[in-house]
Amino acid sequence: MGVTTYTQEFTCSVAPARMFKALILDSDNLIPKLMPKSIKNVELIHGDGGVGSIKQTNFPEGSHFKYLKNRIDALDVDNCVCKYTTIEGDVIGDKLESISYELKFEASGAGCVCKMTSHYHTKGDFVLKEEEIKAGKDQAVGMYKVVEEYLLANPNVYA
User: Fold this and answer.
1) Bet v I/Major latex protein domain: which residues (predicted)?
2) 17 and 139 in contact (C-beta within 8 Å)?
3) How confident is the model at residue 135 (pLDDT cuts 50, 70, 90)?
């Protein structure tokens, strides 16, 4: 098994605590409302939503993927850090064991910098190419931008 690691950053105009609350703590409710064509719903399969919990994200009919399951590995609300692992679903395909992520929202001026590190744990000798995950990275940034726009338009939400 090999591991391929990618990092990315983006800046936004929203404070880190608000982005963290929206994208991490309440994403199960918020993301399906903001992006119903991309995410059908998110179900808590195991646990209380904290560390060790497993959440299943279901995609709408006609989507390229059907579902994925994420396990929450670490959750530090005070420092706006979350670590989770995609452990199941057709997103992983037959070439990956899992994908682990670390998200950190750091203050920067009046807004924040979101730092995301992704570790792709491959099966056998498979080598993941950057082009193969570019669409996923672009989709993640797109989701963050939708949430940022929503929070800017609704300054009292998650305040």
Assistant:
1) 1-154
2) no
3) low
Domain edges within the chain: 2-153
Find the length of the chain.
159
Range of weakest confidence among 30-44, 95-109, 130-144? 130-144
DSSP string across 70-103: EEEEEEETTTTEEEEEEEEETTTTTTEEEEEEEE
For residue range 55-94, what is the model confidence (pLDDT) as tens digits? 999 999 998 899 999 999 999 999 999 999 999 998 888 8
Q: Measuring CA to CA, how many Å separate 149 from each of 13, 71, 114, 142, 146?
A: 9, 27, 15, 11, 5
Residue 116 CA to residue 40 CA, distance in Å, equals: 24
CB 71, CB 87: distance < 8 Å: yes
Edge-to-edge strand list for the sheet holding 3-12:
3-12, 111-122, 96-108, 81-89, 67-76, 54-58, 41-46
Cα–Cα distance, 61 to 65 (Å, whole number): 9
- Report the pLDDT value the prediction gives residue 37, as an integer from 0 to 100: 92
19 and 28 in contact (C-beta within 8 Å)? no
